[in-house]
Amino acid sequence: MAAMGLTAWAYSLSESLLSDPFPRRWAHSQGVAQRARSLGPIMGDDAELLEAAAVLHDIGYAPAIALTGFHPLDGARFLRDRERADERVVRLVAHHSCALLEAEERGLRPELEGEFEPERPDLVDALLYCDVTTTPDGTRTTPADRLDEIVRRYGPDTIVGRFIQRAAPEMHAAAKRVEDRLARVSAGG
Questions:
Q1: Whose CA is closest to 177, among 136, 120, 134?
Q2: Of 189, 185, 178, nearest to 36 (Cα)?
Q3: Which of 21, 54, 67, 109 has a CA positioned 20 to 30 A from the CA of residue 94?
Q4: Boundaries of each HD/PDEase domain copy (predicted)?
Q5: What is the dihedral of CA 176, 181, 184, 188, to 10 degrees?
Q6: What pLDDT shows up at residue 123?
């Protein structure tokens, strides 16, 4: 990884795991990473870290590494154990998009909490923002439309549907915090 650079390595790994079995998930991951790149003005020295985590956030869906069926945990374990990835990238993947709430729905919260410390709140917010403003096809959307789409796709009474409905207030709040930071930078403050 060191010889290649963090983001180049992350794109290569994510593509190798997602592009064939899940081309749409790969398109989403690329869109989330593009959104992360657009946050450069507020991310400073953490811009590359955010982009790497963004393109990797869904690798836990890959059949080769999906062991528990909970993609944040599976992806983070793979990055930590098999790839020896940057600890901060691993933590962002583990905790992306209110993962603790979904882990709770799945009975996996103790594992996620016990194995992976959360990353800084502003980085967690930024990755969540990138995820909830990107469609499954990798194009831009609003948080409201994205969360509605997820509930429709999975169904309101499924694990994912229940989790999204529970997490929606925090997801909207996190997106607003990021939008507010972007607005302050744009306004010169």
A1: 120
A2: 178
A3: 21
A4: 21-166
A5: -160
A6: 97
pLDDT at 33: 98
Quote the pLDDT of residue 2. 47
How many other C-beta atoms can be found within 10 angstroms of the C-beta atom of residue 135?
15
Q: Which burial class, exposed, middle or buried, applies to 113 when counting CB atoms under 10 A from its CB (0-12, 13-18, 19+)? A: middle
Res 187: pLDDT: 86
Q: Which residue has the tokens 């499954």?
A: 136
Question: What residue type is 35 in one-letter code?
Answer: R
DSSP string covering 8-57: HHHHHHHHHHHTTT-HHHHHHHHHHHHHHHHTHHHHGGGHHHHHHHHHHT
CA 84 – CA 69 distance, rounded (Å): 21
- Which tokens go with 107? 């009975």
The rounded average pLDDT for each run of 10 residues, N- to C-terminus, in the chain (189 residues) is 79 98 98 97 96 98 96 98 97 98 97 97 98 98 97 96 97 98 87
Most distant CA atoms of the chain, gap in Å: 46
In sequence order, the β-bridge partners of residue 140 are 134
